[in-house]
Write a structure and sequence with these properties.
single chain, binds S-adenosylmethionine
């Protein structure tokens, strides 16, 4: 996984050498809460001292890509949007500046939520909901979202040293519980290919659109260093009874 512009260094995180799980990654500190707490405590301090908002994962381009998709599909500005693992909350700021009025950011790192709050306040924005929440163990009744966004969070969870396979399954369950039927899930990943993501989210979700991302070519092979997909939540027989 890599911060910054699309693709930079992403290949390093794709390595599965030494992984014990056949469909997993080499476990890494990037999959732990301790890591993210330390990252955002540092970024919070830097913001307080210098006003620097910190890393934008996958770069500005990744945010523009998502907002462009929302524009193209005429997503109403009052649609409810959940940013899963919002980090410094810069994407929430972009959404609010664009005019979205019903946005929520969650992160399991209290420092990330504090940093997001500080940045939002400095931007003079209000009406953005922020919550410290572990997406794999949701404590409150978050549900009924029209749109869920994930930029790098599923990637981080996939690197958890403690039973990442189960955690990925729990992620899909949590996503099902927060997203409304026919709602959209927009995921940007540098750890998973399009085909792998289709497999991960095959239960309950179908591919709606693949968003264009930069291509790389190396040693006669070419591909995308980042996958950006839009899934739509299927209507299931269970949903009919809710
Ligand atoms: C790679 S960073 C991406 C941050 C942000 N989405 C962005 O694009 O800048 C991954 C984020 O996911 C958060 N995260 C990881 N696991 C989480 C979980 N189980 N619940 C909530 N947040 C989580 C981390 O704290 C971190 O903020």
């Amino acid at each position: 996984m890599s911060a910054g512009a699309d693709g930079g260094g992403a290949a390093a995180a794709r390595s599965r050498e030494g992984s014990s799980a056949k469909d997993g990654f080499v476990p890494s500190a990037l999959g732990t809460r301790e890591h993210w707490d330390a990252v955002y405590e540092r970024e919070l301090q830097t913001f307080q001292e210098y006003g620097d908002t910190g890393e934008i994962w996958f770069g500005e381009e990744s945010m523009n890509r998502l907002i462009k998709w929302m524009q193209k599909h005429k997503i109403p500005l009052d649609a409810s949007v959940l940013d899963i693992g919002t980090g410094n909350g810069v994407f929430l700021v972009e959404l609010a500046k664009f005019g979205f009025s019903n946005i929520t950011g969650i992160d399991y790192s209290p420092s990330a939520i504090q940093l997001s709050g500080n940045i939002i306040e400095k931007e003079g924005l209000s009406n953005i909901n922020l919550k410290v929440e572990d997406f794999l163990n949701l404590s409150t009744k978050l549900s009924g979202f029209h749109i869920c966004i994930d930029k790098g969070t599923f990637d981080a969870i996939s690197l958890n040293p403690d039973n990442a396979v189960e955690k990925r399954k729990q992620y899909v369950k949590s996503l099902s519980s927060v997203l409304r039927v026919k709602g959209f899930f927009l995921i940007t990943s540098c750890n998973w290919t399009k085909e792998e993501l289709l497999n991960e989210f095959s239960e309950g979700f179908e591919l709606f659109e693949e968003l264009p991302t930069p291509k790389f070519s190396f040693g006669g092979r070419s591909g995308n260093s980042v996958a950006a997909l839009v899934f739509q939540k299927r209507e299931t027989s269970w949903d009919n009874f809710r």
